[in-house]
Amino acid sequence: MVNEMRWSKFVDEDISLIYRFFRFWFVVWTHFFSFIGGAGYFVLGVAVFTSVMAALVQFFSDSPEYPVILIGMPLSVFLFCGVATVLRRLFETQSIRFYKSNKNFSDDVAFCRRSGLVKSFQGNFPFYEFDAFIEMAADMKGNQRHTLKVRHRYPQFSKDKRSGLPLEFTFPTDTGSIAERYAMWDMLSRFMDVSQPLPDIPRLEPFRHLDPTTRAYDEAGKRGRPATYWRDLYAKVDEKELKRLRDEHHEKVNAAPWGSRPDLMAQSVPGYEDSYTAEPEDVNAYAHAPTKNVRFVERPDAASSESSSDQQNTQR
């Protein structure tokens, strides 16, 4: 959940431990014995096979007896698994509504705009102590997956006590474009910069008037859009038009000169600029084929926050 104060990275349910305990065993029962996606047919088959074998044994015995259990056991198992199937279907259709009405976007793990802190279970740390990087992973077929991650620069102060891993966050994007990862980091950076207005995205539009910097920016007419621009857009256009607008947005993001943008981290971290001084001009081409001849460009000096805010249309 995102609003004018924090970008939450942790969602919990506002429910008791007793409810969690009983829900766990309820899910185990309904999902295991269900006829749909569970072992219901297998359990019923075992019950029927057992009854048939018991009946055959009685048939060849000197004094055959056919107790009610031979018929009652398969029937009972059928009813038992049938009830589990019905309850599972009800759980899958109704639990989402219950979850949405009880979910709690925790402030314990969040990027806080007003304080400039990143809150986590390992502690609270300034946002400028975090570095962003794009992690590439490949499967057995050679398909690449790129993920934007934001990691704390000083892991000795933020390691998880149980796993020993450094504090880091993962941010999803809409497409597989590398430029989308750059745009995501740019949007998060502007969200945490109180000298700039909030990123102009649908999720943040209802909260723009609550942020002082954004309110002054909009009242000065710099946004250039109505106060309910995104709400009206989604209400008026159809899915075909939305797809066209999304495609245009992706083209703008991919065409933006991400490799030649200034690196603001070089201002606050001594020796940071010595690690690398240039970036690929086409970040998408370099990420998919880093061994090819890709043109690198030097990073310019850090621009002012005012000029950075003027580039919002590129990331929308």
Structural commentary:
Helix 1 packs across helix 3 and helix 5 crosses helix 8. The chain is α+β, with helices and mostly antiparallel strands and 316 residues long. Among the domains are: 94 residues, no CATH class; 123 residues, no CATH class. It is 45% helix and 15% strand. It is elongated and about 95 Å long. The longest helix has 34 residues. It has 12 helices and 11 strands. The two termini are 19 Å apart. A hairpin with a 2-residue loop joins strand 5 and strand 6. A 4-stranded antiparallel beta sheet has the order 1-4-5-6, with no helix packed on it. A 3-stranded antiparallel beta sheet has the order 7-8-9, covered by helices on one side.
Specify Rg, calculated over alpha carbons.
29 Å
Low-confidence stretches: 302-316
- Strand-residue proportion: 15-25%
User: Which strand order does the major sheet show?
Assistant: 1-4-5-6
Structural category: alpha+beta
Distance between the termini: 19 Å
The H-and-E topology, N to C, reads as EEHHHEEEEEEHEHHHHHEHEHH
Helical coverage, percent range: 40-55%
Largest sheet: 4 strands, antiparallel
List the quaternary state of the chains: single chain
* Global mean pLDDT: 79
Number of strands: 11
Principal-axis shape equals elongated
Helix count, per DSSP? 12
